[in-house]
Each structure stands twice: as structure tokens, then as C-alpha cells.
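tool_call predict_complex ligand=arginine
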Amino acid sequence: MNIEKPWSGRFTAPTDAFVEAFTASVSFDQYLSEYDIMGSIAHAQMLAHVGVLTEAECSQIVQSLTEIQEEIKRGDFKWSVALEDVHMNIETRLTQKIGNVGKKLHTGRSRNDQVATDIRLYLRHEIDQISSELTRLLKALADVAEREADTLMPGFTHLQSAQPITFGHHLLAWCEMLLRDRARLQDCRKRVNSMPLGAAALAGTSYPIDRHYTAKRLGFDTIAENSLDAVSDRDFAIEFNASAAIMMMHLSRFSEELVLWSSAQFNFIMLSDAFCTGSSIMPQKKNPDVPELVRGKTGRVYGHLLSLLTLMKSQPLAYNKDNQEDKEPLFDTVDTLKGSLHVFADMIPNMHVQREQMRAAAQRGFTTATDLADYLVGKGIAFRDAHEIVGKAVRYCIDNSCDLDALSLDVFQSFTPLIENDVYERLTLEGSINARDHLGGTAPNQVRAAVQRLRNSL
Ligand code: ARG
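tool_result ok
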């Protein structure tokens, strides 16, 4: 192919064909085209504003870039590997369309500040998309938590039955994690939304540019001031990926519970058919593919974080071609996270809760043993002694294959005469959850109040 490269002036030999393909990024950075054009339009307008371009030149450039955007959207744009990347492809097309005026667009700019600007515009947009999926998921969880505020289930530690809780309370634990994730994302957005444009290649430019003007046009809150830092900084991408990794870790834990709970052994929930698949050999199977896949995809997001950290660790200032490797991990992290949140937000409202099964499970495993100890403390026994007495009662129940609330008062009194008839209500599941009636406790009215606070914060 005989396409002239915009930097060909000092070269006498053509690029090796393999090297051309090896160094090109257009196959993936064309994903940034919308933001590249957005940045170029703002740059042209700034150049006109400070008198480096005439108004007529500027409007020709803006008009033509808008047409190019349409060509790309329609799929009519011919991407060329010989033109390396999204930036040179679009600029070359501009010059094809409007001749010499197109060649003026790159005045006072470098691909180094251009690409850094594109990625930040892209990531800012994606953070907003991710935040709204996250909010949609939180709203869905709040609705289910409210509906299931009275639903009893066993709470676990070490995956052993521990104490009764409400399902609403359990769902709200997930909400807390996701709320922190959302806050982390918003905080990261502040550092993403800073404009590198104007740094040019590394040292700034000799033209009388107005960086505040461009920043305002592009909706950047701040300017990445130091020109060396502006073109080489990828902290913002790493920070985003770190937040994404934490979020995926949460979704993965969430997935693990959904997988366990939808098993025949737990049978706490049934995921909707629309979110499961069957087996090609075992006719009875209904597999929880969605949570399994989200759990599996967590690994690639962790991997991308490590890729980006490693990408940056030995780079001298300022821009290095290494940075071209920032895009694929970042794009994949965004798509994976956004997809995972999206599918969860759709799946959660359609999950069926097996209240009877949950309640029956809460009844097993001496989940109100702590309540019995607390009852004894109320009768004046020190907690450590109460713990010991209840431990003996549990041992007795294991040996006699019965539950605590099946013991007669006589048997109870053989452990301590302080136990009276009022013990039985303390041993019920309802008695246990209603007793935990403080800020952050599992009592149904606390759950309902927490749902209200959550809704107010969304
Ligand atoms: N494709 C490059 C990247 O993604 C654009 C910047 C290239 N700059 C340069 N001087 N070669 O990083």
C-alpha cells in the first residue's frame, strides 16, 4: 500500500511490513474516534479563538470532522494500518477532504497530548455509564431488601450456621460494598477529568494557546498542568482499574453466594430461567451461568490492573510508546465491569426467594444459642460462664438429636436453675432478630430504616 505517513519527511526507507502491523494501534484505538474528534474540534476552536486559525479555516475543519464522524458511525470509514492509529487516520482523511486547511489542525498539538486527552474523555464517559448501572443495581437491591425485611435466614461465619438474620439485612450488606465502590469511582472521576491538551509533545507549545478555553469546551474540571506529567501520566487509568478490581471482587463474592444459594443443597433462591442455561447431557440441570461468569471474569480485571501497573513502572519521562499498551486492558476492564453490573441489575429483581427453605435452614444449627447465653446474662450470670453453660446444653442436644427449644424446663434447669419459662420466646428466630434492634442490626424495622437511608443517598 502506498499511503504517505504524516511523519515521513526524515525517512528514506519505508517501514518494514511486519513492523508496521506490529506497531499499529488502529485496530483497537479506533474505539476512541468519537473522543478524538471531540478533542480535535475543541482544539481547532481554541486555535481560532487565539488567532492561529481563521474562523473560516476553523469552521471548515469542524464541518469536515463532523462529516468524518458520520462516516465512522455508518461504517464507511476506511481504517488504514499504514496510518498507525486513530489520530493519523482521522487527520489524513481530513486533509483528503479539505486539503491544506486540514494540515493546520495539528498546530500546537502532538499525538502525545491528543491521545491522553482522548482516553480521559472516553473514561469519563464510561465512568458515568458504570455509575448509572451501579445505581440501577443498588435500587434493585433496595427494593428486594425492603420486600424481604422480615424474611428469616441463617447468617453464616466460616460458612457454618451462626445466628438468624433477615435476608433484607444480608442484601443491604452488598449495598454497603457497592456504595463504597460508587464513591471510589466518583473520587477517581475527579482525577480523570483533567485536561492534558496543550502539553503538546512534552514541553508545551510556542503558540499562544488558551488551555482554559479548550478545557471549558471539553467539560474538563481541571488542567493537567505540567506538560511532562500531562503526556505521561496514566495514574488515572490505574486508579480506575483498581476501583474496578475492587468492584469485581465484590461482584464475585456476590456471585459465589448466588451460586451456593441456588444449589439444591441450599435452595434459598431460584434465579430466573432467563439468566441460566441447561446442560447438553443432564436434563435436570439449570446452571447459574451469569454469576459463575462474573466470578470468572473478575480474574481478567485483576490481570489488567497488574498490566497497567507494570506498563508504567519503568518508564522515564515523558511519553513512551509503551503507553499505547494502556488501551486494551482499559477497554476490556470497562466492558467487563459495565456488562457485569448490567446483567446483575437485570437479574436481581427477577430472583425468586425461597422463604420457607431459608426459614427452615435458620432453624437448624442452634442459631439462637447466643440468645440463650444473653438470656442468662440477663439473669445475672457473667457472659463467659453463660457461654459455657449453653455450650453444655448444645452438647446435650447433639447427643440427643434435638433442638434447644425442644428441651423441657426440667432439662434446662439441670444446667442452671436460673432458666425459667420465659426462655422459650428468647429462643425463637423472631425473638432473636427483633432483639438486634439498633443502628445496623438485623431487626426488620432497622432494615426498613436502612433501606430508606439508602434510597435517599441514591
Ligand atoms: N498510538 C499512540 C498511543 O496510543 C498515540 C501516540 C503516539 N505518539 C507518538 N509520538 N508516537 O500511545
